[in-house]
Model the fold of this input.
Amino acid sequence: MLKQSHNRIESYIQELYEKFAFGELDRDAYVRLKKAALERYGNVSKQIEELELKMGHGKMNGRMENRFEENKISVIEKPMKDMIADVLRAVIVYPGKRVEVVWDYRDEFSASVF
Done:
C-alpha cells in the first residue's frame, strides 16, 4: 500500500509539471503543490524504509538504500528533462568544435511587458 502511494505521488508530481508546462498552473501554484508532494513523497519513503528495517531488509542491504536514492533523483530529473525538451529545439555540432543551440520557447515576460 505504501509503495502504491509512493508511485501515485510520483505520477502526481509529473502531472503537476505537465499542467504547469501547458499553462494550466501558474508558477507559484506549481512550486507550492510540488513542494507539498515532495514532502509527502519523503514521508512515504521514510515509512517504507522504517518498515523494511523492521523486517530486516533495510540499511543492511545497500542495494535497497540505493534504490530509494535513485527514485528520489528520478522524480526530480524527469521534470527537468521534460522542461529541457520543451525549450530546446536542436543542438547542432559543426566541424571545428563549433556548437549551435537552437532554443524553442515562448518568452512570457516579453509578451506580458510589451
Q: What stands out?
A: DSSP finds four helices and two strands in the chain. Confidence is low (pLDDT under 50) at residues 58-62.
